[in-house]
Design a protein that fits this description.
- The protein is an alpha+beta fold.
- It has 2 domains: 2-184, no CATH class; 204-275.
- It is built from 8 helices and 6 strands; from the N terminus they run ααααααββββββαα.
- The protein has helices spanning 2-12, 23-38, 42-55, 65-81, 85-98, 114-124, 204-232, 241-275, and strands at residues 130-132, 140-143, 146-147, 150-152, 157-162, 168-174.
- Strands 3-2-5-6 form a 4-stranded antiparallel β-sheet. It has a two-stranded antiparallel sheet with strand order 1-4.
- Strand 5 (157-162) and strand 6 form a beta hairpin.
Length: 276
């Protein structure tokens, strides 16, 4: 039955007055319905309960928790007259979730009567399971008049979409298990950490290192040649030959290593120039 009620409310949204329905008008309609039930005026109660359901999607204002709780109680009374006891308990649970200290007036149901028993049954029920709700940046999703991050999935709720200026964009009566509208679905959070654009590396250090190593190679090569010539000179004392040989070999090694390194750093510098 609740599902049928939801579709009826959605369909009637297209017939809303241009200026919408003030929440005070909606609240007054609920008050008349409750009074009619207490007076056992079923015709007036059903007429006002139906009107409240028609006014709901047309609301021009955000509802408060007191309005939402009263609406759920009227729906509980409607379900009772239709002998839908599960619906009675669900709607009373929605009301008590907002106003846990509320006591059912004896004008509606004295202790021991079936309606009062269903009310007490609702009070004994554990909290409903929930699902997350969301909204676009600067907007909000209200669940029974509260800006909430979750919605009870086992209970009917009034769902409202409000904009940055708290203007109401849409109001829905969402039944248990009904899918969330797109505007109330949680938004994915972008956890990507922005990074600064990569700065191209400079080839200058590579060329400087290549030049320094090339000079080192040339100097070492020159020293090696000079020491080699001195080693070959017949006038060089015999006791100096071993030292000259060692210095010549060392200079040759330094020259070769420095030259190879100079080529490597020079190539790296050229790669940076071409790549970037």
């Amino acid at each position: 039955m609740l599902v049928a009620v939801l579709f009826a409310a959605s369909a009637l949204a297209a017939d809303c007055p241009e200026e919408g329905v003030p929440v005070e008008t909606f609240n007054a309609t609920l008050d008349v319905a409750v009074t009619a039930f207490a007076n056992m005026d079923r015709a007036t109660f059903e007429e006002r309960a139906d009107l409240a359901l028609e006014e709901l999607p047309c609301l021009a204002d955000a509802v408060g928790t007191a309005h939402a709780a009263k609406f759920h109680r009227v729906e509980a009374l409607r379900s009772y007259l239709m002998k839908d006891m599960e619906g009675v308990v669900r709607s009373f649970r929605s009301s008590l979730r907002l106003e846990p200290d509320y006591e059912l007036p004896t004008s509606l149901g004295r202790p021991g009567t079936p309606l009062h028993q269903q009310f007490e049954e609702a009070r004994r029920q554990p909290p409903s399971k929930t699902e997350p709700v969301g909204s676009a940046p600067g907007e909000a999703t209200l669940v029974d008049g509260r800006k909430s991050a979750e919605r009870p999935t086992e209970l009917p709720v009034i769902l409202q979409w409000v904009g940055e200026g708290w203007e109401v964009k849409e109001t829905l009566y969402l039944t248990p298990g009904a899918a969330l509208p797109e505007w109330a679905k949680p938004r994915a959070i972008d956890l990507t950490i922005p990074t600064a654009p990569r700065k191209p590396p400079s080839p200058t250090p590579f060329f400087v290192a290549s030049g320094a190593l090339a000079i080192t190679s040339i100097v070492a090569s020159g020293l090696g040649i000079a020491w080699s010539q001195e080693f070959e000179d017949p006038s060089t004392p015999y006791d100096e030959l071993e030292g000259l040989r060692d210095r010549t070999n060392a200079a040759a090694a330094v020259s070769a290593i420095s030259g190879a390194a100079a080529l490597g750093f020079g190539g790296a510098g050229l790669y940076v120039v071409i790549r970037w």
